[in-house]
Amino acid sequence: MGLLSYLGKRLLFAIPQLFGIALVAFFLLKLIPGDPAPMMLGPLATQEAVDKLRHEMGLDQPVPQQFVAYLGQLLHGDLGRSWQTTNPVLVDLAQRLPATLELVTLGLLVAIAIGLPFGLAAGRKPHSRTARAADGFSIGAGAVPDFWLALVLIFLFYSAFHWAPPPVGRLDFATLAPDRITGSYALDALLRGDLETFRAALSQMVLPVLTLGLVYSVPVLNMTRVTVERLNESDFVRFADAKGLRPARVSGHVLRNALPSIITIIGVLYGTLVGSVVLVEVVFAWGGAGQYAVSAVLNADINASLGFILMAAVVSLLVHLVVDFITVALDPRTRTQ
Amino acid sequence: MSDAPLLAQQAPESHNSGGDSVPAGTVLGEFWSFVRARPGFLAGYVIIVTVVVMGAVAPILPLASPVDADASAYLLPPGWAHPMGTDTAGLDIFSRVLHAPRVDLLIALISTLAAALVGGTLGAYVGLWDGMRGPKGWASTLVMRTADVLQAFPVFALALVLVAVMGQGVASIVIALGIVNIPVYLRLMRGETLTLRGQAFVEAARIAGASDSTLLRRHIVPNAMAPILAQMTTNVGVAVLLTAGLSFRGAGVRAPTPEWGSMIAMGFQNVVTGQWWPSIFPGLALALTVFGFGRIGASIQAWSNPRERARPTPRAWAAFRQGRGAR
Predict the structure, then answer these.
(1) Is the full-model pTM beyond 0.95?
(2) Are the Cβ atoms of B157 and A159 closer than 8 angstroms?
(3) Nearest residue on chain B to A312, alpha-carbon basis
(4) Measured at the alpha carbon of residue A276, what is the angle toward residues A146 and B264, in degrees to the nearest 5?
(5) Chain A environment of B263 (Cβ under 8 Å)
(6) What is the distance between the alpha carbons of residues A53 and B13, in angstroms, rounded to a whole number?
(7) Inter-chain residue contact B161 with A140, CB threshold 8 Å
(8) Between A and B, how many CB-CB pairs are < 8 A?
(9) Max intra-chain CA distance, chain B
(10) CA-to-CA distance for B256 and B263, rounded, in angstroms?
């Protein structure tokens, strides 16, 4: 019961925050110069046609009224239409979000696979060679822009050695997209038993996932390391070491206790990444939600921009919620609070 | 207790102190000898001084023009005439890489300074007024809620929207990056103030009748400067990355102006076909700069932490283990 009321409270608090985001975003986006009506109709449109469209879209109304109208639509689950794609924004986002999510999810899994063991080893032995290597890695990889690392990887693995497929998007031109189940090509192909397409989709993912994994393993590594170094000085670790437990087992105990903070940082990263893998998406022509949002902002496509910002906020709220639940499940001490 | 405010007042100057020797005995001198003994930190200062000097002297060096294209030099690989090659417009990459800090560092430094100034001031008052009754408490809550909303935006999208609103240009980027970073300093300074305001010396000053602004200026801000400075140096790196990102997407610095991000973007299609030099070199310069600022930030952080500061350097440690004793 406590869990349910906690969940309810959290969702209740999320509403004013989402409202604030919608408010700020709406008025900010309205300030972008450029009128969508003439852009939609093209350069040859007559003034009457433009005026008529402006009236239909409600653009001739004062901005506060437009906001109220937008909120009304929002409550019915309608995010409006994008004038660039002429589709409802919700449809556009539903098409592109899986692409972004599969990239971010796999990228973070790689980041965890690199950062967690590395951070654990470095944290357990702060003056070892591993620790110094971890230092070097986190300082170096932390300074590299992700979109540039993407280009370096493309050059090395595609242009120079042809080990990876060209960066043409989520599938090469010869392969058809599988019928939609989840929206992730690799997952859908696997579910439909189409191994050929599955392999094609997977091979397209290797470089972008590696890029994200390398760059974002740095925060995971640093957080793991700092937490583990702090745990080294706690009584239970000293006792375990002193009674001669195998180092691997002590590390296991340490990891178990370090997990809540590591999961928190992963959650934070996930939330931020969904909104900001834009540039990597652009480099790999991924066609994800970020790429959609950037071209929306640059072309004064207000509904699409707003839809993306709200969606990113909702995803990050959900992720934080999930993270909190995992933390509570992992650490009994937080349950009493 | 006494040396923390001193550090706060003097550390900023140490950024530019470069290779010249500083008289020992002062806090700045101590800081400098701390950095000098640690090559990992020293490298950052060397890199940043080099980048700044390069940007400063680039116009008077005998380089090809960074903005006037030579159409006959289409996409030449690195060689004697063009040490880093040329791009598709026939522009000399080497000259452009050296000129770029003039724009990149300018944007990063001014926007970081502005964000720290605004965010730090707000954060100090918010921290001091946190939990108070009446208008001060309300104002503090209002500012924090606004920061919550601002931080819920995807950073890159927010910066992009702000630039779109203000129109493309260097000033817009500076303002956009400043606004995006304000909440970072707001939170940092608020946290520091919340800790400090409970300490005896601050309470004593308060009882003695110090006003809010005196309290902050004389007692709180000087003691909170070290983390702010460390954050600022890291943030300069982040700002350079964001500027590059904006330019990469065509919303930053306009094309012929040499800027690392837009250079990477201009060469992006060439990388796919195997001509790596137009993108890779500016990216290296960018990464090196971010790395340098990161090291400077780490050195300030280590210095402000007594345990880190007292930790022997690898060389001193080795000397000690060899039985010759530590310095």
Answers:
(1) no
(2) no
(3) B154
(4) 40
(5) none
(6) 59
(7) no
(8) 137
(9) 76
(10) 9
Nearest to A159 among B161, B274, B294 (CB): B274
Buried/exposed B65-84: b ≥16 CB within 10 Å, e otherwise? ebeebbeebebbeeeeebeb
What is the b/e burial string over A38-47, where b = at least 16 CB atoms within 10 angstroms of the residue's CB?
Answer: ebbeeeeeee
Report yes or no: B142 at the A interface, CB cutoff 8 Å: no
Chain B residues whose beta carbon lies within 8 Å of the beta carbon of residue A269: none
Confidence of residue A335 (pLDDT cuts 50, 70, 90): low
| pLDDT tens-digit readout, B206-243 | 899 889 899 999 899 888 888 888 888 888 888 888 88
Question: Both tokens of residue B261?
Answer: 């991000």
**Pair of tokens at residue A154:** 């493309």
- Taking a contact as any Cβ pair under 8 Å apart, which residues of chain B between 65 and 124 contact chain A? none
In this structure, what token pair is assigned to residue A127? Answer: 């003056």
Compute the distance between CA of residue B167 and CA of residue A36 in angstroms, rounded to an integer: 17
B13 closest CA partner among B23, B28, B34: B28
Report the chain B residue with the minimal C-alpha distance to residue A310.
B153
Give CA–CA dist B13/B19, Å, rounded.
Answer: 13
> Per the CB < 8 Å rule, is A278 touching B249?
yes
List, as one string, the DSSP characters of B133-174: SSHHHHHHHHHHHHHHHHHHS-HHHHHHHHHHHH-SSHHHHH
Q: Structural domain boundaries of chain A?
A: 2-75, 96-331
- Among A228, A206, A211, smallest CA distance to A117 is for A228
Q: For residue A274, which residues of chain B lie inside 8 Å, CB to CB? A: 154
User: What is the per-residue pLDDT across B17-41, written as a single tens digit (0 to 9) for each?
Assistant: 444 455 556 888 888 888 888 888 9
H helix or E strand, kind and range, residue B195? helix B170-196
Of A214, A311, A320, A210, the closest CA to residue A263 belongs to: A320
Burial class (CB in 10 A: 0-12, 13-18, 19+), A309: buried
Question: Which fold is adopted by the domain A96-331?
Answer: MetI-like fold (1.10.3720)
| pLDDT tens string B103-133 | 999 999 999 999 999 999 999 999 999 888 8
B167 in reach of chain A (CB within 8 A) = yes
Q: CA B96, CA B66: separation in Å to the nearest integer?
A: 5
CB of B309 within 8 A of CB of B40? no
